[in-house]
C-alpha cells in the first residue's frame, strides 16, 4: 500500500523537507496524494508508531538529522510499545511525524542511500599545517603568559596561587588583537604614560635575557655579528635584531643576542644614521618603535656583562639616536655601570663616554670624576683627538678634571714638542713622550675653549697650546665656512677671557690674528639668534617694570637678552638648553657666559624657565621680576 501524504501539510520550507519530498515524489510516480483530506487545525494522516528508546539510540546519525533529532535536540519522548496512541508532546510535533512517515516510505523503496547523501553534511578536511601552527602559537602564548605572571609576582613580593588560567584561545586572540597604537603610546617618552606597560616590557626583557645563560653557540653568535655589521641601513639592523628577539622569545636557546651583539647592533644603527645624516625627527621616530625600545631595554639588562668597549658603544649610540630628548634613565644606568668598570677603560672609551654624556646634556659628577682619574692614569695612551674630546666633554657639563690637568702639566713641560696642523693628523701618544704633539686647528680651538670654560687658563699645558696659535700666521680665517667660524668663536672667547680674568699673563694673541678672529667670530652667518616664546613673554613684562630696557645688547662676544645701560644691569633669560636635563645645573657655556659678563663689569640677573613656570598668572610674574631686579 502506498504511503499517504496530505497535500495540505504545511511543512517548513527547509532544505531537508524539500529534499525528502523530492526523493519521495521521484521514487513513487503513482503516489496517492489525494487520499487525504484537509481538516482545519488537525492533521489527517495515521499516526506512526513511536520509536522506542533503545531503537532511537541505534538510529544512524543521518536519520536523526533528517528527523530533526540530532545533537542538541531534546530526547524523543518515551512511549508504551503496547499503546498505539502518541503522547501529547509528540502528537503536537506534527512535523516530526510527517518526516517519519516519509522516511519509512523512502526506506521501503530502497532509496535510503540517496536521501543519506542529500542529508549528510560533508566533513571539511582539516588543514594540518594550520592546526599545528595554531597549537604552537597557543603553546608559546601560554608559556609567555605563565612566565610573565611569575615575574610580576616575584617583583611585587607575592604570588596568587589560586589565580585561574585563561583559556588558550583567549590568550592567542589577545596577542593577535593587541593594538599597535596602544604599544606606541605606552612607550612614548620612555613609558612615562603607562607604568604598567613599562613594567611588563622590563619583565619580558628580563625573560629574554635568561636565555643567554645557557652554553653559547659561538658559530651562531659570530654569524649574527657579521650580519649586523654587513647591513647598510638602520632599518635593516633593527629588523635583523627584531627577528632574533622573536626567535628567543619562542624559546631559542642559547640566544645569539650576546652583550657584544646587542652593543654592536645599537652602534651600527647609530653609525648608519650618521652616514645618511638622518634628521633628528626621523631619529626620534625610529627610537620610539617597539623593536627599538626592546633592543635598548635588552642593552640595559646586558650592561653589567658588557665590555668597556661595549659600554662606550652603547653610550655613543644612544647619544646619536636620541640626542638630548630621550634615554635619560638609560644614561643614568650607563653611568652607574661605567663607574664600576672605569679601571678597564682605555683612552677611546673615556673620550667617547664623556662626549656622549656632554652631547645629551646629562650630568654625571661621579662618573666624570672617575673618568678624570682614569684619564690621568693612562695619559700616555691618549691620541690628540681623544684628549680634545674628553676636555670638551668635561667643559660642556662644567666638570673640571683636575687629576687630568695636573697630569698634563707634569707630562708636557716643553712647548717645543707642540705642533699644529690645519687638518687632522692620525697619531697617538702611545708611550712616545718625546715626539711632537700634532694638534689640528679644531682640536686647538676645543682645548682652548675648554680651559676657558673651566677657568684654568693659567695652566702650563694651556700656555703651550695657546702659543701654537702663532703657526696660523700663514693661514686664512674666513667667515665663509662653519669650521672657521667655530674655531674663531672659541679662540675669540678664550682670548677675551685672558684679557678679563688673567691680564697679568700677557697671553693675548697677536693683533693681526686677533683682528681676523674677532671679525670672523662676530659674524652672524652661522650664528642666527632665535627668540623663544618664553623670552618674548618675559621681554613684554620687562617693559611693564617701568625701566628703559635695551633688547639684544652685545657685550664683547656675547649677546645679552636685555640690559639697562645706565645701571649696567644685564638680564638673561635662560631656557632649558642652558641647564643639564637631569640635575638642572648650569652647563659649561652658561656658567662661562655668566662669569664673562660679570668680569666685564655688569651686574647679571638670570631667570630660568623652571622658575617662571612656577609662577601663577601675569601679576605674580611681574612682581617676581621686580623682586629679582631689586636684588640685582
UniProtKB/TrEMBL annotation:
Residues 155-172 have a biased composition (Acidic residues). Residues 114-172 are annotated as: Disordered. Residues 122-137 have a biased composition (Basic residues). Transmembrane segments: none annotated. InterPro entries: FAST_kinase, RAP. Coiled coil: none annotated. Residues 569-627 form the RAP domain. It comes from Urochloa decumbens. This is RAP domain-containing protein. Pfam families: RAP (PF08373).
